[in-house]
Design goal:
Length: 376
């Protein structure tokens, strides 16, 4: 009887293994097919702008959004941004992030650059470099200011963002207060809010963020600033990265590339094998996520533009520190969410620090609530 049990167990394990290999193989094949539909960006340069001090498993991804670029009438409706904004095609980057990923330590790092950072050497904001000079110049600028070498590029417009969030099952946000943006018609309640792609885009882009304790008396909140939007963008990216812990993620990535192919672009170095390797590396989960935002101080240019000045050396220090933390598998606490508001008076900065210490949204509480309700 024991022999029979062992025999059947052996067969069952063999069948399970074969099914797993088949699914994995189909996932890789579908991924290869899907990549043929996606715009590709050639980022090969004659030489790198910077050289990291030593070889590492960590790679740096430039992830940026070009907003309304390439939107069709149908995709504009999906995003909820409105027809006027949808047809602007201004070419400005709506968000710019460097993602440091380490497949060995399973760590991720996010470096966000406010859109209004003023680049003296370019005489323009950072969000205009792509429009004026193209992706290679944006890479060169970011490598110069961060001290990091960019290995891969992911570009998306608003519709691509919506598609990705929807296909990954949405994003959960737990709020301590009611929140709204009357312009985008976003209304969130106290407790757990489950956001689809359209709602997540409104959440990430809100410029008229208001909060209320009673759903009647509303006040404008500090997170209406660029730094507040970056907080929300980082939160969504963090939530989406946690969804990598899924044995069927390779198939899901293929679906994303199929559905969002008209609204995203990847560099030519991200082959099907490379994507499969990265997805597989984080299939058991992400061990930690570090987040920083490059600080800036508001000032007005000679032409009257409101922009942010920043310390170039400090920017490089912040970026390299995060890179080292992700690369060296160091458990020491990294300074997180470095935020300097666009106001400059000590009193206002002090108030800003007090407010920023209050966590306005989280996923942990939301996860607990969903588990209690039996929806985990």
């Amino acid at each position: 009887m024991k022999g029979v049990s062992i025999k059947y167990i052996g067969r069952a394990l063999l069948i399970i293994t074969l099914i797993g290999v088949t699914i994995s193989g189909l996932g890789a094949y579908n991924l290869y097919q899907s990549l043929n539909r996606v715009e590709r960006i050639d980022i090969q340069r004659l030489e790198q702008a910077v050289e990291l001090p030593k070889a590492s498993a960590s790679k740096v991804f430039l992830v940026f959004s070009v907003g309304s670029e390439g939107l069709t009438e149908g995709s504009v409706d999906r995003t909820g941004i409105g027809r006027v904004r949808g047809v602007m095609e201004d070419g400005l980057t709506d968000s710019i992030m460097l993602i440091v990923a380490n497949p060995k330590s399973k760590k991720l790092g996010i470096i966000s650059f406010p859109r209004d950072l003023w680049l003296e050497s370019y005489s323009t904001r950072i969000n205009e470099v792509y429009k004026r000079k193209g992706v290679l110049e944006l890479i060169t600028a970011l490598e110069g200011y961060s001290g990091l070498t960019i290995d891969h590029v992911v570009k998306s417009n608003f519709a691509g963002f919506v598609d990705i969030v929807d296909l990954l099952g949405g994003v959960d946000v737990f709020l301590e207060t009611y929140a709204r943006d009357s312009k985008s018609k976003l209304n969130l309640t106290i407790g757990c809010n489950q956001l689809d792609g359209k709602m997540a885009l409104a959440f990430a882009r809100s410029r008229h963020w208001q909060i209320s304790s009673d759903n009647r008396n509303w006040r404008n909140d500090r997170t209406s600033s660029d730094f507040g939007r970056i907080e929300r963008q980082q939160y969504i990216l963090e939530e989406l990265s946690l969804k990598l812990k899924n044995p069927l993620m390779l198939t899901k990535i293929s679906q994303i590339l199929n559905v969002a192919s008209a609204n995203i672009a990847l560099d030519t170095g991200l082959s099907a094998a490379e994507i499969a390797r990265w997805v597989g590396s984080f299939a058991t989960g992400v061990s930690s996520i570090e987040k920083v935002t490059i600080p800036g101080v508001g000032f007005t240019t000679s032409l009257g533009a409101s922009v942010l000045s920043f310390d170039e050396e400090n920017t490089k220090t912040i970026s390299l520190d995060l890179y080292e933390k992700v690369t060296n598998n160091d458990n020491n606490e990294l300074m997180k969410d470095i935020v300097t508001e666009q106001t400059e008076t000590p009193e206002m900065l002090s108030k800003e620090k007090r407010v920023s210490d209050q966590k306005e949204f989280s996923n942990q509480s939301c996860a607990n609530q969903l588990k209690t309700q039996g929806r985990s």
